[in-house]
Each structure stands twice: as C-alpha cells, then as structure tokens.
Amino acid sequence: MAEKDVEISFKKDTVSQLLSNFFKEDKTKLSGDATRLMVEMLKVFVQEAAVRSQKQAESEDCDQVDIEHFEKILPQLVCGSTGSRNVFVLLISACLHSLIFSPDYR
C-alpha cells in the first residue's frame, strides 16, 4: 500500500457544532478548551483507526482500504457502550466516512 503523510485536522467550529447536536439542553455550551481537546482526541482516534484499517486491508490482501475494513476494526476501538462513547463513535464514523469517500483524499 502506498504511504501518504497526510495531516489530519478538523475545524474547531465543525467539531463544536457536531458535539452541540448531541446536547440534551440547548443552553449547554462547549468551552474553547473542550473543543480543542476533542479535536486532538479525534486526530489520535482517526490516526489509530486508519492504521488498524490499513492493517486489516493488508491482512485480506487488499491494496485499498475500504469502509468495510473500518467497520471490522471498529469494535477494537470501542469498549463498552456508554452514551458518551456512542456519540464519539458516531462522530468518528462520520469523519472517517467523509475521509474515505472524499474525492480529495484519493
């Protein structure tokens, strides 16, 4: 597989808006520090998911990572099923899905 050094980044406003969609009360606010922390967590999580997905694809003798490879490694990344983890997984899944199917990424 071809190695690409791609810098993973997420817009703070986008992450903040996505997280706000999961708040139960409209009055709940997200601080700048919390948003920056979530952006960093997303970067680490996405990098780990990408590496594991690539290894999964290689183990299946595929030369391209597909969404099915990500779906196979997802249980490794998520332990338990608490509400906050579900939100995080949904957010990560949406980000990875957009990366995998982004025309600029290929």
From TrEMBL:
This is Centromere protein X. The keyword Aminoacyl-tRNA synthetase does not apply. Heterodimer with CENPX, sometimes called MHF; this interaction stabilizes both partners. MHF heterodimers can assemble to form tetrameric structures. MHF also coassemble with CENPT-CENPW heterodimers at centromeres to form the tetrameric CENP-T-W-S-X complex. Forms a discrete complex with FANCM and CENPX, called FANCM-MHF; this interaction, probably mediated by direct binding between CENPS and FANCM, leads to synergistic activation of double-stranded DNA binding and strongly stimulates FANCM-mediated DNA remodeling. It is found in: Nucleus. One of its GO terms (cellular component) is FANCM-MHF complex. Belongs to the CENP-X/MHF2 family. Gene3D superfamilies: 1.20.5.4980, 6.10.130.30. InterPro entries: CENP-X (IPR018552), Histone-fold (IPR009072). GO terms for molecular function: DNA binding; protein heterodimerization activity. Keywords: DNA damage, DNA repair, DNA-binding, Nucleus. Its main location: nucleus. One of its GO terms (biological process) is kinetochore assembly. Pfam families: CENP-X.
